[in-house]
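Hi F.,

I've been meaning to write this up properly since the lab meeting, where we talked about keeping a consistent format for the predictions we share between groups. The idea is simple: the sequence comes first, exactly as it goes in, then the C-alpha cells exactly as they come out, then a line or two of notes. No screenshots and no reformatting. I'm using this chain as the first example so we have something concrete to point to.
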Amino acid sequence: MAELKIARLGNPILRQVAQPVNLKELSDPDSEIQRFIDDMVEVMRKEGGVGLAAPQVSRSVQVVILESLNNKRYPGRGDIPLTVLVNPVITRYGKEIRSGWESCLSLIDFRGLVPRSTEVTVEAYTREGKKIRIEAEGFLAVVLQHEIDHLNGLVFIDRMEDFTKLAYMEEFETYWMDQEEPTGA
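Output, unedited:
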C-alpha cells in the first residue's frame, strides 16, 4: 500500500516548478522512481482521480499519470487508458478555447469553471524512457493541461476568469451540474 498523501492547497510544494526526471533513472525497472510511479497510480485510483502529478503527493519532479475508466467524478467523459508521462511539455495549444468544470485532488471539495484549449500536443517520455508525442482533444486535452499545470506550480483556480463560478462540490451538484459541459478535468 502506498504511503503517499495528497498535498492540499496551501502546501508550498504545489506552487513550485517541478524538476525534470533524469531519464537514466527510468532504465532500471526496480528503481525508486519506478516504485514511486506505481505508488502514484495506486493513490490516484484510491482517491478516484483521473490524473495525478508528482507535486500533488509532495514530490517536486516532472511525472504525471492519467487514467479514466468509468470515473464516477467525470461520468460520460470517455476512457483514458493508464498513461505515465515523464518530463511532459505542451508544445502546441489549439486555438479554440472552451470552459469546463474542473476539480482537483488537491482542492477536492471544489469545482471551478476553467477555460482550456480544446486541443493540445504534448511531448514526453514513457516510464520506460521512450519519447512520445500525444495529439489530444476534448477531455484528454483538458486533463493533460490540468496535470502539466501542476508541474509548473499552477492549480486550476489560477486559470479561472470568473470566481463566481467556483463552488463547493455539494453546491456544484445542486446548482451547476445540469449546466455542465462535458469537457472539464
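Notes:
The domain at 12-179 is CATH 3.90.45.10 (Peptide Deformylase).
The longest strand covers residues 80-93.

If this format works for you, I'll send the rest the same way.

G.
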